[in-house]
Design goal:
By secondary structure, the protein is α/β, with parallel strands linked by helices. It has one domain (2-224): 3-Layer(aba) Sandwich (Rossmann fold). It is built from eight helices and 13 strands. Helix 7 packs parallel to helix 8 (196-203).
């Protein structure tokens, strides 16, 4: 989809910089071919290590947040933006009764997830299939996803719709937006000014919020409100 995005995000000043630019939303950046390539796009290199180091460190550390989800074995857990199933696998390995429905924009990521998770208690699908099947979920996780979505309001509304009343939603997300886009022939992660956190606050009850221990944005736990 072609449109106009605001400016590049400067993480040091916590501000957008530069002029407005014309862009094409570019989700193809997530169409990786291998699991190592997927890891490099899901967890990018930073001061805490390369993608594999971050994967090995951050993945098990997320378990302490999963314990707050109050999973009901009669319903699946929604992993929205599941990628290759990093957290879906963690949930299934942690809870012998957990079934997980993964949703991701990338067909390639969904295909790799079947191999990576390797469980009969996991299924991956596009968002429109989740909506069509109307799968109701007892809890949901959405990690480093909403910052990249083209229309995060639509994604948040879908999560709310499929989450049971009183179901809990765990969101780990950057403070700003990192939208995959091309401007001319150049690829960039850009900030379009959409306030994901305000949209979440308008639809869910905030239970707790904290700075991510890994230095990547916020960790917030919500409860779904009655329709």
């Amino acid at each position: 989809m072609r449109g106009t995005l605001l400016r590049s995000w400067d993480p040091q000043t916590q501000q957008t910089t530069g002029p407005e630019v014309d862009l094409d939303y570019y989700p193809s950046v997530f169409n990786v071919q291998t699991i190592p390539d997927a890891k490099r796009i899901i967890l990018t290199p930073d001061n805490n290590g390369d993608p594999e180091q971050r994967w090995q460190h951050e993945t098990p550390a997320t378990l302490k947040h999963f314990d707050k989800l109050q999973i009901n074995s009669g319903y699946p857990v929604l992993d929205y933006g599941c990628g290759i199933g990093r957290l879906s696998k963690l949930l299934i390995d942690h809870d012998a009764d957990a079934f997980v429905v993964g949703v991701d924009i990338s067909r390639n990521m969904r295909a790799l997830a079947g191999t990576y998770v390797n469980s009969d208690r996991f299924a991956a699908m596009p968002a429109r299939m989740l909506r069509q099947l109307n799968i109701r979920c007892c809890a949901a996780v959405c990690v480093y996803t909403l910052q990249h979505c083209e229309k995060p309001v639509d994604d948040i509304e879908l999560i709310q719709r499929q989450l049971l009343e009183g179901g809990r939603l765990l969101v780990i997300n950057e403070v700003s937006r990192y939208v995959p886009a091309t401007t001319g022939s150049k690829f960039e992660w850009l900030n379009d000014g959409q306030d994901v956190w305000a949209e979440l606050a308008s639809r869910f009850r905030l239970i707790s919020e904290e700075q991510s221990e890994f230095g990547h944005g916020r960790v917030a736990l919500y409860e779904n409100l009655p329709p």
